[in-house]
Amino acid sequence: MVAFEKFSKLSMEEKAWYLWNGGSFLMAYESESLRFNLFRINNYYVELVYNLQTNDIEKIRAFFTDTLLVPYLQKIDISELVE
To answer: Looking at residue 1, what is its pLDDT?
Structure first.
């Protein structure tokens, strides 16, 4: 699979191709008009932001930092585990 540096320089269409053909989907959450999809490729994460109103991809960004995972981690329901 593609390295982080190379992935970051790809076009939006090429990034989407790599996500569909080799990325591991982890989770998603939605706001009023956007769907945020989290993938993993090799040793980094990729976020695909999809506009639900226009049916278009708004942004694809690759990252390593855990701080960008916070919105996803906040959506995980662990209430059944702590009861």
So the answer is: 75
